[in-house]
Amino acid sequence: MPDTRQQKTFCRICEAQCGLIVETRDNRVVDIKPNPDHVASKGYACIKGLKMGDFAHSPDRLQTPLKKVDGEFVPIPWDQAIAEIGAKLRQIHAQQGGQAIAAYMGNPIGFCMWPTAMLNMMLTAFGSNKLFTPGTQDCASKFAGGERLFGSPGAQVFPDIDNMRLLIAVGSNPVISKMSFITMPHPMERIEGIEQRGGKVYWVNPRRTESAKRLGEHVAIRPDTDVFFMLGFLHEVIRRDAVDHEHVRRYMNGYTTLAEVAKPWTPERVAQVTRIPAATLTAMVDDYLAADGAAIYSSTGVNQGSYGLMVYWLQEAINAITGNLDKRGGVLAGKGVLPSPPIPEETARSRIDDIPYVNNTIPAGIMADEILTPGEGRIRAMFNLSGNPLLTCAGSDRLATAFEDLELFVCLDIVRNETAEYADYILPGLHNLERADIPFYFFSVMGLMPTRSYSYTDPVLAPPGQCRDEGLVFRQLCRAAGVPLGGARPLQWFSNLCEWLDTVPFLRGRYSMDKLFFSLMSRVSKIGGLGKLRKHPDGILLEPNARRLPGQARADTIGQGGTCTRRPRGARADPR
Ligand SMILES: Nc1nc2c(c(=O)[nH]1)N[C@H]1C(S)=C(S)[C@@H](COP(=O)(O)OP(=O)(O)OC[C@H]3O[C@@H](n4cnc5c(=O)[nH]c(N)nc54)[C@H](O)[C@@H]3O)O[C@H]1N2
Ligand SMILES: Nc1nc2c(c(=O)[nH]1)N[C@H]1C(S)=C(S)[C@@H](COP(=O)(O)OP(=O)(O)OC[C@H]3O[C@@H](n4cnc5c(=O)[nH]c(N)nc54)[C@H](O)[C@@H]3O)O[C@H]1N2
Ligand code: SF4
Ligand SMILES: [Mo]
Question: What pTM was estimated for this model as a whole?
Answer without folding.
Answer: 0.93
